[in-house]
Amino acid sequence: VKLTIEIPLPPRALSPNARVHWSKKSAAAKMMRNLATNACLLAQNEERWTDMPGWETAGLSATFYFKDRRGASSDRDNLISSLKSAVDGIADSGLLADDHGVEWQSVVRAVDKSNPRVVLEITEIEDAH
Fold first, then answer.
1. For residue 62, which of 4, 2, 123, 120 has the smallest C-alpha distance?
2. Alpha helices (runs of H) in 14-106, residue ranges in sequence order
3. For position 128, what pLDDT does the model report?
4. Region 87-102: what's the mean pLDDT?
5. Chain-centroid distance, C-alpha 62
6. What angle do CA 1, 101, 23 make, to 5 degrees?
7. Average pLDDT over residues 50-57
8. What 3-state DSSP class applies to 32?
9. pLDDT tens digits, 20-42
C-alpha cells in the first residue's frame, strides 16, 4: 500500500546549515508539519480510505523538484534533514504510528522551473517477522 503527497520545498530555515533565529525556524517547522499533515489527509480522502492505518514501518522516497540546477545540487543528507517536520506531520495525520518507523528509500533531485516542490511516496513495509 502506498500514499503519494506533494508539499512545497522546505524553507531555507529548515536546513541544518541555516543560521536563523529560533523563532523563524520554529515557524517554518510548524508550517511544514501542518502542510504535510493536511496533504496526507487530503490524499487519504482522495484514495477513499475510511481512516488512517497507523503503519508501524514505512519506506519514504522523496523527489525534490527545484527551479534550477543549482538547487538540485543540494546535499542529500541536508535535504532529508530539512524534511524532519514534514515527517512529523505525516505521523500526526495517523498514516504512521510515529516517525520512528520511517526508512528512507531514496532521495532524487530534479528540475521543474514552473513547479518547485517535494513529492513524497510513503509505502507500508510489512513486518518481516
1. 120
2. 22-47, 76-82, 84-92
3. 52
4. 93
5. 7
6. 115
7. 86
8. helix
9. 999 999 999 999 999 999 999 99
